[in-house]
Amino acid sequence: MVKHFVGKICFFFLITTILFTIFSNVTYAVSDKQRIYDFAELLTDEEVEKLESLAEKYSHKRETDFVMITVQDSEQDMETYMDDFYDEEGLGYDQAHGNTALLGLDMSERDVVLMGFKKAETYLDPNRLTQIREKITSLLSDRDYFSAFEAYISLSAKYMKFKPGVNPENPLYNTWIQLVIAIGMAAFIVWMMARSVEPKMETTSRTYQDTERTKIIKKRDRYIRRTVTKRRKPKQNNKSGGVGGGNRGSVGRTRAGHSRSASRGKF
Length: 267
Fold this sequence. Notes:
Diaminopimelate Epimerase, Chain A, domain 1; six-stranded mixed sheet; 7 helices; 6 strands; 44% helix
């Protein structure tokens, strides 16, 4: 009987140890995943560690990996470089070539490129990627790369909260503006209710008006003067003026055939 009891205890501890080891290895594998590839060495080790932690946090939250690549000179177009990087590294949140939001920086050409694959392609379309890129461009120009990358991760995660096709920068989605609108509507309703219970005056200007004896005996319209102002109509300018710096959003495919959204520009 005692041996049977001891055997059960030993079996319990054995199973517990095995499970603990398995889950520890899984946790380590997830936390050890690299998402920041600073080949241009723009960040300190501490900054890389902070960005890795932030990227991991939001990657789990949005089920999308937020990955950043910096290169000193890609020796090819940055979009092509990033396409190949996605294909060759098999980036993705829970599978190879899966949900990925990708930012790339080419220091030699001053190019910044944002891409979205799979789920990120849907929720970070070219318009949203362009909005994000425009918000971080000034930080990149000021060489504040850490703040730019930090803003990229948080903004991308924020924009992925909204349904596709919705403008995340619409003021109506701002919490403070929603609060102001709610307070304004409540104040209007209270004012209308208070106005409806105010006592009405029974005596008006018409109370003492003698409509039988008071009549309009003559009516005349007098036209005083006329002024005509002439204004030159501006000529149409047929010259096309594109946005400077090559700013554009697009959709496309990698050489391996993976569909993605993109936005690129200069900084």
